[in-house]
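In this supplementary section we document a worked example of the pipeline. Step one takes a protein sequence of length 273 as its only input; no multiple sequence alignment statistics are reported here. Step two produces a three-dimensional model, which step three serialises into structure tokens for compact storage. The input and output of this example are shown verbatim.
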Amino acid sequence: MKIPAEMIVDNWNELLRVIDDNFEGERKDKLKAMYTDLEDRMCMQPASSIDHYHNAFEGGYVDHVLRVIKCAKQVYMLWKSMGSDCDGYTMEELIFVALNHDIGKMGFPGEGNETYIPNDSEWHRKNMGRMYKVNPNNQFTLVNDLSIWLLQHYGISITWNEMLGIKLTDGLYDENNKPYFMSRTADSKLKTNLGYVMHQADCMAARIEYEKWAKTKSNTTDAIKSFSRPSKSSKPNFKKLGSIASNGEAGAAMKMFDDLFGGSGEETKVDKT
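The serialised model returned by step three reads:
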């Protein structure tokens, strides 16, 4: 899956408009300075490294961020319409978190320090959907930690709500967020719903992006079915197969392999969800 060059340019311009329309003064200037510095990298970075995760293609990162911003606004309005108290944070804080929640995926400043680099293994791309790999030259870090560090590096001050919002966007996918989402006392519960809104917005965007990817796969239904638990009668007799192979009966072993898996020796491609 990929998006045309014209859409990559349009998405970038839309991202800059988000900054112009929602921030002002020195904060807007510093945000635009950071995004300008990272422009070449950001425009081409994916949102993830594996095709069936979300937006693992050139331009996928900006496309994902724009979708998260739109989803965050919609989720916020839903919470508010259902009677939730959304007065504990501002709309600027919500947009700021949505805009920068994954900025750590840009990697460290400097040439060659991006997080994702194209996978040079054709086998991993074709058989595992690993379109990119994590840059082995970079220091290991969690995305949200690097997001907060990058904002600090570019001199962009953030509020406590914004820091916590960026941290909690991954929800319980990040074990470190458990104390925030699974508090046992009233006093230690989150003071605002910003973390919930952002996690739901991010999940919504990622799911939509997965569905868009799935529609491009003609074998999606078959791939899903292939993950169903096989019956006992369908289990291959690996012990017998190994015995035949060890006795030098390679031809018989290959025939048995074909009988078991219904193939001609070619690897069956399955897209996990």
